[in-house]
Design brief:
Blueprint (H helix, E strand, L loop, with lengths): L1 H21 L4 E4 L5 E8 L2 E9 L29 E9 L4 E9 L4 E11 L2 E8 L2 E13 L3
Antiparallel strand pairs: 1-2, 1-8, 2-3, 3-4, 4-5, 5-6, 6-7, 7-8
Length: 148
């Protein structure tokens, strides 16, 4: 009985550690081309990512780029700034990755299944894929930054 109590106590201590590891993804990230900053946050128990900044060279006539490749014509005029492009990620402690999410690619207007892993605290790899097959996809690298 004493061993069970010790095991349960130690198990309770590890829960905050798992949450800390899961939250390492939180923050502001440059995309691979360093043209866009994405804010990753926790919302309703899932990790999401929203575009919060684009370099001025991406603007046209002083306006942020629009979601003009979206398959829904009604959304073509919405700004990419403020657009949520990551959705539904959950942390898998065993694999040390965020999984079961999706990534929206504004350049193509397509949404892909996606998972993410931290290579270091400041370097993340995301892999978008199709047909549930991780090998059928493309990897993108993001780099931690600040909003400044």
């Amino acid at each position: 009985m004493k061993k069970i109590a010790v095991f349960l106590f130690l198990g309770m201590l590890s829960i905050p550690v798992l949450a800390q590891n899961a939250d390492k993804i939180l923050g502001i990230w440059w995309n691979e081309e360093k043209t866009t900053k994405i804010s990753v946050e926790l919302k309703d128990g899932k990790y999401i990512g929203t575009i919060v900044y684009m370099i001025p060279e991406e603007y046209k006539n002083g306006e942020a780029p629009k979601d003009d490749k979206n398959p829904d014509p009604a959304l073509h005029d919405r700004s990419l700034i403020g657009l949520q492009i990551l959705d539904g990620f959950e942390y898998n402690a065993k694999r040390e990755e965020w999984k079961d999410g999706t990534i929206y690619d504004p350049a193509s207007g397509k949404t892909y299944a996606c998972f993410a892993r931290l290579e270091t605290d400041d370097h993340m790899k995301l892999r978008g894929f199709v047909a549930g097959m991780r090998m059928l996809g493309r990897t993108s690298q993001w780099f931690r930054t600040s909003l400044d």
